[in-house]
Fold this sequence. Notes:
The structure is a homodimer of 198-residue chains. Chain A has 198 residues and is of the alpha/beta class.
Amino acid sequence: MKIPSSLDQLIDALRILPGVGPKSAQRMAYHLLQRNQSGAAALAHALADALTKLRHCQRCNTFTEFDLCELCADPARDKRQLCVVEMPTDLLRIEQTLAFKGCYFVLMGKLSPLDGVGPDDIHFDKLLARAQDGEVEEVILSTNFTVEGEATAHYLAELLRAQGLRVSRIARGLPSGGELEHVDSSTLAQALLERRSL
Amino acid sequence: MKIPSSLDQLIDALRILPGVGPKSAQRMAYHLLQRNQSGAAALAHALADALTKLRHCQRCNTFTEFDLCELCADPARDKRQLCVVEMPTDLLRIEQTLAFKGCYFVLMGKLSPLDGVGPDDIHFDKLLARAQDGEVEEVILSTNFTVEGEATAHYLAELLRAQGLRVSRIARGLPSGGELEHVDSSTLAQALLERRSL
Lengths: 198, 198
């Protein structure tokens, strides 16, 4: 007894999704076919549509349906500050704070030697060209404070400083309203090391 | 700053997958677009293909690309025994044991009042018609020993016995090679209750 090949191929195709193994792929396939055929058709359409329409913003590298994304096309943004983030979600998160009026560059990834992601895979050349447009005065590295995010920030700092650019890193420390008693040791240790003079 | 609508729609569409919330859907969308566009295209194609080609076997209700599935079309199978399972995976699992030579019926689900799945959603009428073809002598209920699987088995037993059919349930008990010391209490208690006379 073999399972029908189109079912087999669907299960295989679902396994490319991150975090989806053989068992979940099977469960997803049966769920789609048995309980949500219209959802499956919508997913197929959304995938094809996104693949056709989405590209990278020529300036900031985020996903957009046009040459320039909404933010890069906005003349009111401060061209002197360039905030570098890992993913579009990070950009949206910073925008939600309403605390930053400059421009962004989205790396669409991070250095991650263990996953085989090196400097060539992240298109740092596009960032270098962007940072050297003559208007940018400061590059604010806002990658995550994970091992990979930190490595990416260090690598980029070297690269950008070598071009004579001013480079900064968002602050690490206790959260607003945070209590020493409840913060993890690593954050507390770093907050002590990176203390600010008043 | 809004995210492009085709990206938004893709994230929405991915959320129909079981076990996928807003965060994973976002992660999946970025992964597909940034790291695996060919995989995404293959997934879109596999979905459309499966939706077009797959249908339910007219006799056993499993997924097939033809009117009858491979097993139902096989004249060598014993027509007197009908094994009822919840999903196609269960059928494949039983086939792997090489211990059953009869026919199957795949419910494609189970009674699950909490999820709003009642007798009308499971197409028990198709099973009833199948079991009353004149050749079936025994219906072997092989739904899972979960709460829903047990409820389904009890419901079906009533229904099928009322039609004068012989109904049995696969055995529950200790696994082969299992030791009393290591088996869970519920299984052990049931194994005592359902002891066989020798």
